[in-house]
Amino acid sequence: GGVGKTTTSALLARLFQRAGYRVLLLDADPDANLAATLGFPDPEGITPIVAMKELIKERMGVDNLESVGTFFRMNPRVDDIPDRYSAEHDGLRLMVMGPVRQGGSGCACPQNTFVRQLLSHLLLERQEVVILDMEAGIEHLGRGTAGAVDLLLVVVEPGLRSIETAGAIRKLAADIGVQKVWAIANKVRGERDREFIRSQMRDWKLLCFLPYSEDVAATGRGERTLSPDALDGMEEIRKAWETVRSI
Fold first, then answer.
1. 121 with 139: CB under 8 angstroms?
2. What is the rounded distance in angstroms from the CA atom of residue 4 to the CA atom of residue 136?
3. Distance CA 237, CA 234 (A)
4. Could you give phi then psi for residue 95, rounded to 5 degrees?
5. What are the pLDDT digits (tens) for 26-66?
6. Region class of 24: left (phi > 0), else alpha (psi between -120 and 50), else beta
7. Are 40 and 101 within 8 A, CB to CB?
8. Could you give the CA distance from residue 208 to residue 27 in angstroms, rounded to a whole number?
9. How many CB atoms lie within 10 A of CB 171?
10. Neighbours of 56 (CB within 10 A)
11. CA–CA distance, 67 with 185 (Å, rounded to integer)
12. In the prediction, which pLDDT does 107 show?
């Protein structure tokens, strides 16, 4: 948490947009702030997908999402969801997933299935750049969708805990079939940080080292938004993007 996943997602989205790509973002972090980072008007007013209970009940064929042991459709229609229910601003489209309860309660099964089906559609069938801003894990991905992930980017900062978390994520990703797992080092304050990360991540593909920036930190604190102009002079992320888009 706090390593810069959302900021990195926003920067990459701006670069793809600037190059003429259609970009769809999905904020899959329970602490959703990608819309605010990108300057979407009224980000709090964007309804999370899992909060669209009437829509989910209709698509899943259930009357009550809270009933344990409810029978529901395993392949609900989701192909119209991105176009009908995404917010659009400044050439970018975005959806917020919202927190889905996990565990053995049973009451989240229809929502989980709906979200998984939507993810499968986004990754397998949409002809555009799809960027998922996820929490520190891959819980939203299943074996059915992992093969469609072109690249999983793990953002790390100069610290053992962050790097250990990155290693755990890479192992989980390999277990479900994600082929490429690369890293971006963020909040790097100098050569000492660079050498530390290199020494701890010798077997990783490190795309770039992003320097600590007070301007970007202010974005993370919600004090400003990430405008297209924020990319000017950020050669490291631009080089990383060139590698990403060539996949």
1. no
2. 11
3. 6
4. -125, 150
5. 998 888 899 999 999 999 999 999 889 899 999 998 887 77
6. beta
7. no
8. 23
9. 10
10. 20
11. 44
12. 45
Strand partners, 152: 181
Walking along the chain (247 residues) 10 residues at a time, the average pLDDT comes out as 88 92 92 91 92 90 72 85 94 88 52 84 87 83 78 95 94 91 95 97 95 74 66 77 90
Dist. CA 25–CA 22, nearest whole Å: 10
67: CB partners within 8 A, 6+ apart: 107
The pLDDT of residue 212 is 85
* Contact of 41 with 89, CB cutoff 8 Å: yes
**Which position has the token pair 């660079």?**
194
- Show the CA angle centred on residue 102, arms to residues 166 and 7, nearest 5°: 40
pLDDT of residue 232: 57
At 154, list the tokens.
């793990």
How far apart, in Å, are the Cα atoms of 14 and each of 79, 183, 237? Answer: 25, 19, 11
- Sole residue written with tokens 């888009």: 245
Residue 57: count other Cβ atoms within 10 Å of its Cβ. 17
109 neighbors 72 (Cβ within 8 angstroms): yes
Give the helix/strand (H/E) hosting 182. Answer: strand 181-188
Rounded Cα distance between 76 and 170, Å, is 30
For residue 181, the one-letter residue type is V
Query: Which residue type is seen at 150?
Result: D
